[in-house]
Design brief:
Layout (H helix, E strand, L loop, with lengths): L2 H16 L6 E4 L6 E5 L2 E11 L10 H17 L4 E13 L3 H17 L4 E12 L1 E9 L15 E5 L9 H4 L4 H9 L5 E4 L4 H12 L2 E5 L7 H9 L4 H7 L6 E5 L4 H7 L6 E8 L5 E4 L5 E3 L16
Parallel strand pairs: 4-5, 9-12
Antiparallel strand pairs: 1-2, 2-3, 3-6, 4-6, 7-10, 7-11, 8-10, 9-11, 12-13
The protein binds magnesium ion.
Length: 316
Amino acid sequence: VGELSLIEWIRARFAEGLSRPATGKLIVGPGDDVAVIGLGREKVALKTDVVVAGVHFEAGASARAVGWKAMARSISDLAATAAMPSAAVAAVALGEPGGRAWAEELYLGLEDCARRYGSPVVGGDFASASGPTVVAVSVVGRFDCEPVLRKGAAPGDALYVTGELGGSILGRHLSFEPRLAEGLFLGRSGLGSAMIDVSDGLATDLRHLCRESSVGAVIEEANIPISDAARKRAAATRHRPLDHALADGEDYELLFTVRPAEVERLEREWPGPARIKRIGGMTAPGSGILIRGSGGTERPLLLRGFEHGLPQGGPR
Ligand SMILES: [Mg+2]
């Protein structure tokens, strides 16, 4: 069973129940970077995420880096909706890799990231396991602005991405900094009309954004920020650096849209620290997702992303 089809089954299955939670009020259900519920007068963001040995990290990866990654992935999703992390819980099933020292390093890595982004680990669970080690982190966040969702983009909006893309398998997938300051800026300033973090690869996550917003998109090949790691990776594969930038997962950059009238303000007020690049724009519903080459010809943007697993030779 592919991951996407199972996720769709779960969404269909739970959609009705989630619309009538016992307490609180559902504001954003499955299908965005986080769920948002109303508790009293507060909007609360919820996100859980799992990191599995052999899938999201190799057995030889530093335990401290695995801990960092497990926390940072959830914080990246909060950032992608402009939610401020409040607290986290972590559940660990310790199999292989494992051992006391490994587990301690793992928790130190969780704590490193939690401290940096203001999301202290306040509880969790621990079990020994006979299979691969699994680390699940759940983070709660709150908002001091409206959540920025995947569904806010309109035709004509400019499309931007932070940082550089591709090749994160060479190491960045274990050490990335979630774009929290950037996501909060886009929410608080009102500049972000839609947003997602790039976890499955630019092509796939752009598709998610377009589907939720019911728009098309055109991206400019020449404007895609290609990382050095993507170039290095391309030297070892038969793909182009551009293909790695478009399709590799786990960049954890922010992909977001801005109304055309706000582009100038965005460029003027952008606080960093990550740089932004305008990579294209949103188009009318039904016009598809296209990439424009340097000669001006447009072609459909192929996914070439991959689902979870190791089909392209490494963890993601
Ligand atoms: Mg996400």
